[in-house]
Amino acid sequence: MKLWAHFRRRVVLLNIAGFMLLVLTAAITYVAVRPNPDDQPEITLGGAGAAGGRTSGPSGYTYQRSKEPDRTEIIDSSGQPVAVMTDGARTVQIYGPTRTFEEPTFTSAKVDTQVWVRIAPQPWRAGAETQAWFVDWLSAARQDRSPDVLAIAFEYVDEAPAKKNNDGQQYAGDASFGPPDPADPDGRQERSDFYDYLGVSWTFPDGKSETPEPQRKLALDCSGYLRMVYGHRLGYPLRGTNTPGEGLPRRAYAMAEFGPGAQLMPNSGQRARAIDRLLPGDLVFLNAQPVPNDQIDHSGIYLGLDDGGHHRFISSRSQTDGPTMGDLSGAPLLDGSGYWPDRWLTARRI
Q1: Is-contact 239 194, C-beta < 8 A?
Q2: Where does the chain have alpha helices with state H?
Q3: Residue pLDDT tens, the chain, 350 long
């Protein structure tokens, strides 16, 4: 009997020890797999803090932080994208009704996009979704159907109708690249800025003053085209020089190297990679020399995917005598093989 009682006591002790070991193992396992709130950077505007790094409120928006480039992606309560705000940039991609951009005279390609590219009143910073300026601006921008970056860009392509202000000055319409130049390999002169197109003198905030040349009236070279769309038409600050500072510099190389906003990939001197970082409205920079190198001397505006699934941009080119998304003198694509894909070096969201 004593032997049996001793045996039963050992069994009970072993069962208790096994149970304690099971409890300890479960606790350790829970701590190992429980998500860290710091790894869930999503928040929703307008309410008190909740578990998992989120707050909920009447807006129904979720603000999710992403990298490469650092940005805030805004999503509505149904999970649909609303907008993309990129750190250090004023360019904002807002989702709205689908539009189609095409230039049938020079290409059969079409670009269908839900993205409307707007300019915020100030550069984006993480956390600005709680600031009054942003809440008011986004509400108005989502309802705005006036011409955006993409629509304005197409106001200068071949046969685009002339638009004039109340003083009779033309500010939009079919643009040339520049005056003819038999000595230039491409046949036309560069150096036509937005003030040349307008035919008006201009003084820039950095102190540079310019006087238009009559032969450059209604002409825009590649960087002058970007400055017309973003600067003169949409109010983005412009510089008269190619020096660092507030605003968009004059030349393509300066825009790419030390321009405002966020550089999307470095210029390694080789064909740019990480094409998935691009969004409509981004500025793309290319080398147009006979022998490719790291020199940037051409710029354009990224449009998005065309109906052939290719990444297409629009730019003002000498060979086509003005802005185009057409295929003449090489399809303006960033993927695949061809003249322009091999010469794409970097991109910037300003």
Answers
A1: no
A2: 2-33, 132-143, 149-153, 194-198, 222-226, 252-258
A3: 433 344 344 433 334 344 343 333 333 332 323 333 333 333 333 333 332 233 333 468 999 999 999 999 999 999 999 999 999 999 999 999 999 999 999 999 999 999 999 999 999 999 999 899 999 999 999 999 999 999 999 999 999 999 999 999 999 999 999 998 877 766 788 899 999 999 999 999 999 999 999 999 999 999 999 999 999 999 999 999 999 999 999 999 999 999 999 999 999 999 999 999 999 999 999 998 877 788 999 999 999 999 999 999 999 999 899 999 999 989 999 999 999 999 999 999 99
